[in-house]
Amino acid sequence: MWTHKSWQGRLLAHPLPAGERLRHYAGWCDAVEGNTTFYATPSRETVATWAAQTDPDFRFVLKLPKVVTHERRLGDVAEPLAAFLTAIEPLGPRAHALWVQLPGSFAPADVPVLARFLRRLPDTYRCAVEVRHPAFFTDAPSTRLLEGVLADATAEWIPFDTTALFQDRPTSDAERDAWTKKPRTPLRTHALTDRPIVRYLGRDDTARTVAGWQHWIDVCVDWLREGRSPTVFVHTPDNADAPVLARRFHDEVRAQVPDLPPLPEPEPVEPLTLF
User: Fold this and answer.
1) Domains of the chain, earliest start first
2) Which domain of life is it from (predicted)?
């Protein structure tokens, strides 16, 4: 996601042609979650415009289409998967990871299907898997089973940290909506590879969002000192200030790891005028 209505004219210039929106976002953050690819595989030409708007070290974490993960549940997916991989080829090194977000019904009994799927992926792409079935978090044998399959494929386990959201009752419409849609999974901070990926969901209140991510600051500092290269996505229920918060998170980590490169400087947004 690199456009949001509340960012327009405030964080990003507005109006912007479609071919420039990602470039302006890339002035705020150096990574993006590709959520739209879940709903439809983009054309190769569209993906080429994404590459043209970003530097080679920009990171795309692209969600696999729902026909692959949810409708066919990783089975009999050769055709839609091949179409997706062909479409994203123009990204080159920007394709940081293929994001396999599995439905909550995908249980430990389904792990052999995941193992077969991962073995068939081309080595040119790294894979990161997000699971939501509670047994993967609460049942030790199920945890070990999934970790073993992911480790064999050099794939990462993406934690989606919603603990701050569910700490107490929602206080806004956006938080109430998130309560009905987001998974309640236990906190997980263990990395399997040198490129861990974290999805963090805070609150609409900035202070509570910042308080909720403090353990991730410590985890990321440790990962960086171990030679890992984490990618962290910061969300709030309304996402109104997500780019600002992402930069604040990066600054807090960089305060402890000064060698971490700074994020780019956003392009200035011209104030709106009456004429």
Assistant:
1) 1-157 (3.20.20.410), 159-261 (no CATH)
2) Bacteria
